[in-house]
Amino acid sequence: MAMAELPAAQAAVLADVRALAQRAPRVCVLSGAGMSAESGIPTFRDAMTGLWSRFDPAQLASEEGFRADPARVWAWYAERRAGLHAAQPNAGHRAVAAFGRRRPGVLTVVTQNVDDLHQRAGWPDTIRLHGDILADRWLEPCPHGRACAPAQARPGQPPACADCGNLLRPDVVWFGEMLPAGAIDAAERAARGCALLLVVGTSGAVWPAAGLAGVARRSGARVAIVNPHASDIDDDAHWVLRGTAADLLPRLLDA
Ligand code: NAD
Q1: pLDDT tens, residue by residue, 109-167
Q2: CA–centroid distance, residue 33 to ligand 1 (Å)
């Protein structure tokens, strides 16, 4: 498919970012929901298609919401999991993974996404800040001080421990929860150590992930944003490319 031509100023930005990507000793990609939008996974905040425009985040993505109505939250996640199983990595995920394989030791991918599309595109070492939507974990520590029994499936309800009734919940970071310490530490190290941070498809509204652009910039990296719309962290960037992940990442990263 022929690529659309960019306006001259954007073409010059693209050439600059591309030149740095191809020679930088360390490149970090920070992705958000927009990275997977062209794989058919809805973003959270896009006004027309965003999940939050149809649902109340407090009820569906918080521990409080899960405790109030586990069946409803479980069903919502089951639907999102089915959507993910039907989705494929897009040209953006593939360009990132191919770039990393071509330049061993250069690339770190940090994602806010709970999908597995970077991994399926061929970058298994992706640092996941917000967990894994395809995995489960127990809601509570086992009250008997040991591991819970294998979870029993229950129609229309989250699986439960046969001994104590503990519920399984999706292994994602919900509103108000801490990020996995190892993941955010590794992400900050990558942001501090890279020469180029490529921020793709994030609104920059969710912290501490949004702070990584500032961390990278203060540490001397150049920061480039790929997003069709304005984001809250555009001011942290040296370069802003207005376009989509699947269109621009191959242009920036392919050999
Ligand atoms: P967000 O929904 O807040 O923002 C999405 C951003 O992507 C917007 O700035 C939008 O302009 C941009 N965008 C839309 N289409 C794009 C495209 N084709 N190419 C590039 N950019 C595009 O998402 P966020 O900033 O990642 O933060 C919110 C939270 O959403 C994260 O915690 C994440 O876990 C969660 N989330 C993840 C997924 C997923 O795993 N795929 C999906 C929805 C939400």
Answers
A1: 999 999 999 999 999 999 999 999 999 999 998 777 778 888 888 888 999 998 889 99
A2: 2
- Report the top-level CATH class of 7-41+87-130+179-255: alpha beta
pLDDT at 48: 64
Candidate list 93, 130, 229, 238, residue with the active-site label: 130
Does ligand 1 have an atom closer than 6 angstroms to the CB of 32?
yes
Question: How confident is the model over 171-199, as pLDDT tens digits?
Answer: 999 999 999 989 999 999 999 999 999 99
Q: Ligand 1, closest atom to CA 203?
A: 9
Which residues fall within 8 angstroms of residue 15, CB to CB, at 6 or more apart? Answer: none
Architecture of domain 46-86+137-172: 2-Layer Sandwich (3.30)
Tell me, yes or no, if 130 is annotated catalytic. yes
DSSP state of 53: G
- Smallest CA separation from ligand 1 atom 13, residue: 34
Q: What angle do CA 107, 112, 115 make, to 5 degrees?
A: 95
State the pLDDT at residue 2: 55
Buried b (16+ CB within 10 A) or exposed e, 75-100: ebbeebeeebeebebbbbbbbbbbbb
Q: Which of 38, 41, 44, 119 to mutate to test the pocket of ligand 1 (most atoms within 8 A of CB)?
A: 44
| CB of 65 sitting under 6 A from ligand 1 | no
